[in-house]
Design a protein that fits this description.
2 domains; Dna Ligase, domain 1; Rossmann fold; alpha+beta; 16 helices
C-alpha cells in the first residue's frame, strides 16, 4: 500500500478526525497554579466560552516550511532600503521616524489551499500568542496513534523565555545596556477587550523576569518632564496593543509625544505597521515587476509570488473591471484590522461597493479557507480554518489556528476559537 504524503494525511485528519484533544482540567490547572492568574480562568470560563476550541488543526512539514519561507522572505524585503523608501514615502510622518526596533508579535495569517499555503495578511499587534501557549500545553493525545502530537512542538517549553527575550531585544536595539525596569501593557479600555486575559498573562510574565509591569488604559498615560508616566511611574517600554496604528487619536497624544521625543521604547510602533501591515504592501509584494525592480533574486521572488495572492489597489479607474471580477476577490481596508469592514466580493451590494470605492481599499484574489470537521455540543460541523504564525526577526515562534463560521474569524462559533496546530512528523 502506497503511503500518503504528509500533506494528504494532515488534510485527512482535519477532515475525518473529530476527536477532542483539549484537556480542560490541565488548562485550568495552569491558571490556578499562580494565584495572580485566578481571575484569568474565571473570565475565560464565564465571559469567553468560544475563546478556545476543544479540537486541533494539522499541517504538514511542507506547509510549515512554506510559511517559514514566506516569513523569512518578507523580512528580507523589508530590510531593503529601496523597499523601505517606497513604503515610507507614502506613510504618515510618524512612521518615517527612524526606529531600530522590529516590533514584537508580527502575525502572518494564512489559508491552506490545495495548491499550498497562502498569506492573507500581516498584522503588527497580533494578539493571542501567550494564550495559545497555555492552550498548546493543555493538549492530550486522542488515541495511541496520536501520541506524537503532544510532543510535536519542541519550542513550547521555553516560549515564555523566548517572548521575554524578544522584548529584551527590542529594548537593547534602542537603549543598549541601559536597565529596563518598568513596562506598560496598553490598550483602550483594556478590561473591556476580548483578549484582556492575555494582558494579565503578560503582566505576570514580565514580573516573573524581574520587571515591574502594569496594564493600563492608553488614555491614562501622561507626558511631562521629558518622560511618559502611568500611575505616577515613569515608563521605559510600552507593549502596544492599540489599533490606532499611527497614534492619530487625541486620546493618545501623551504616547505620541513620548514616542516622537524618543523618550519611550514602543513596540510594535508606527513604522512597523507601515512596513508590514498596511495592506498596500500586499499589492507590492505580489507584483512581479516591483519585486524585480528591487533586485531580489528569483528564488525570493518566487516564494513571495507563489504564496501571496495577487492584490491590487481599488480605485475609480478600475471600478468597472473590479466589479465584474468581484466574485473572485476579497476587499479589505488598507489600514483595517480584525476583519472590520472586509467583504467577500460575492456578498457585496451596490451600496457597499460605493463605500468601498470612496475608501482606501485593496482587492485580493479570493482564497477560500480550508475546513476542520468537528463535533461540538453533540452536533457535527465543518468550521473554517485560519492559521496564524507569530513571528519575530524572520522566525516563526508559534503557530495557532482560529476556527469559525461566517465571513471572518469572530470567536462566536460553538466549537470554534483558538486551536493548537499539530505539525505532522516526517
Amino acid at each position: 500500500m502506497t503511503a500518503l504524503p504528509t500533506t494528504s494525511i494532515a488534510e485527512a485528519l482535519n477532515r475525518d478526525c473529530v476527536c477532542q484533544t483539549l484537556d480542560a482540567e490541565r488548562l485550568q490547572q495552569q491558571w490556578q497554579a499562580d494565584p495572580a492568574l485566578s481571575s484569568v480562568n474565571e473570565s475565560i470560563l464565564t465571559q469567553r466560552p468560544h475563546l478556545f476550541s476543544a479540537t486541533s488543526v494539522f499541517i504538514s512539514q511542507a506547509q510549515y516550511q512554506q510559511m517559514q519561507a514566506l516569513v523569512s522572505a518578507v523580512e528580507q524585503v523589508v530590510d531593503l532600503p529601496a523597499y523601505r523608501q517606497t513604503v515610507l514615502d507614502d506613510a504618515p510622518a510618524i512612521a518615517q521616524q527612524a526606529n531600530p526596533t522590529r516590533g514584537v508579535f508580527l502575525g502572518y495569517d494564512f489559508h491552506l489551499s490545495p495548491e499550498g499555503v497562502r498569506l492573507i495578511e500581516i498584522n503588527t499587534n497580533a494578539g493571542g500568542a501567550l494564550l495559545n501557549t497555555f492552550l498548546a500545553r493543555a493538549q492530550t493525545a486522542c488515541c495511541q496513534d496520536m501520541a506524537w502530537a503532544s510532543a510535536a512542538n519542541i519550542k513550547l517549553a521555553n516560549l515564555e523565555k523566548t517572548f521575554f527575550e524578544m522584548f529584551s531585544q527590542e529594548w537593547q536595539r534602542q537603549r543598549g545596556a541601559q536597565p529596563l525596569r518598568q513596562i506598560a501593557i496598553i490598550d483602550d479600555e483594556p478590561n473591556n477587550q476580548y483578549l484582556c486575559p492575555e494582558f494579565q498573562l503578560f503582566q505576570q510574565l514580565f514580573q516573573s523576569f524581574g520587571m515591574q509591569a502594569m496594564v493600563i488604559d492608553a488614555r491614562e498615560l501622561t507626558w511631562h518632564d521629558g518622560k511618559l508616566w502611568a500611575n505616577e511611574r515613569p515608563i521605559d517600554l510600552v507593549y502596544n496593543r492599540l489599533t490606532d496604528f499611527y497614534l492619530e487619536d487625541d486620546a493618545h497624544q501623551a504616547l505620541k509625544m513620548a514616542y516622537e521625543a524618543n523618550a519611550v521604547v514602543l513596540t510594535p510602533h508606527p513604522q512597523a505597521h507601515a512596513l508590514y501591515a498596511n495592506k498596500h504592501n500586499l499589492v507590492r509584494l505580489s507584483d512581479a515587476q516591483f519585486l524585480a525592480q528591487l533586485g531580489i533574486n528569483e528564488a525570493l521572488q518566487q516564494t513571495l509570488l507563489s504564496t501571496i495572492p495577487t492584490t491590487e489597489t481599488v480605485n475609480l479607474a478600475k471600478a468597472d473591471d473590479l466589479w465584474v471580477r468581484r466574485k473572485q476577490l476579497f476587499f479589505k481596508p488598507a489600514n483595517g484590522y480584525g476583519s472590520k469592514a472586509t467583504y467577500r466580493g460575492d456578498k457585496i451590494t451596490r451600496r457597499v461597493w460605493e463605500e468601498i470605492l470612496q475608501g482606501d481599499y485593496v482587492a485580493q484574489q479570493l482564497v477560500p479557507p480550508s475546513a476542520r470537521r468537528l463535533q461540538a455540543d453533540g452536533i457535527e460541523a465543518e468550521l473554517k480554518v485560519d492559521i496564524r504564525a507569530y513571528a519575530y526577526a524572520g522566525e516563526i515562534q508559534l503557530l495557532a489556528a482560529r476556527l469559525y463560521t461566517g465571513q471572518t474569524t469572530n470567536f462566536r462559533t460553538s466549537g470554534g476559537g483558538f486551536a493548537p496546530v499539530f505539525l505532522m512528523p516526517n
